[in-house]
């Protein structure tokens, strides 16, 4: 969360305003409290922030210089169900506990580090709570040169802080370019004007969990975060194994197919796909690759002179699933009214070169739901055909106009 990162903010301050080697304080002047109060007030009165405060029912006067400490202490104490110890929060906030507490309950590093991680905004209920800040790994000469360029006059006892600040700036460089205006003083600093040096430094910045090659370790980690980290590791391992097994299964299938094809070539025995391709090619060359009307449809009473579809028409054959089919793969029954279904049943779909749907068989459908729908359609159409027989209507040669008339 670069918005609330104090290390990034400190690095930006030093890079923009420089470092005074003769001063013992980070911020110059003798009235930092009043200056901070005025700066905070101006920030709260900006249009965007003022409107947001008004939306949540908070006035600018309700927030003061001590609000940050109070809000941070409240977040650490009750911001989740896995908060740091209350004593560690009180001591870090600098509040006197009084009586026995001030005398016997003392500061210790583990609780204080836990508070530091919590108040920094890390997700306490996720494994990322144990993450480490941006830092340099390798490139020591380049890093030292960059530190001298950015923080001239910095005292030696804070050079390590400056290194972490520089790493945070380099790590969030894209974020800064996106959210800060081009005329911001930060981009006038010597290092920020050298794009190539920044990209070189970026290769040495790491963020996240530590490795066995590093001496830095994560501190202030509660037990539940350690367990979450182990669970996350197991989850990642299982996911990796699943992908590997999927790849192995694919390789096995491809290998078996290759072996079978090679064996067929050696024995001179053609495969099913090769047989089907050869037969289709011969049928296409001879002009025989079409469907002919069903035998029951041969006896036509009269020739049809004006129609949108004739049952004597021929239709192409389709090959899929290792066989020939009257309908293409993935065939689905259309949605619509019973009248529309009757037209498809008698006349098919000329726009798609599909024969009358009365020729549909379960083998022409690959989806079980479509097979169930076909069964229902056949039952309904049989009832209609029976009624047509009683009316002496020959349904084998109906055109689309006749089917709906």
UniProtKB/TrEMBL annotation:
Keyword Signal: yes
Keyword terms of this UniProt record: Signal
Keyword Signal: yes
Endpoints of the signal sequence: 1-21
Residue ranges of the region described as Disordered: 289-312
Superkingdom assignment: Eukaryota
Protein name, entry field: Uncharacterized protein
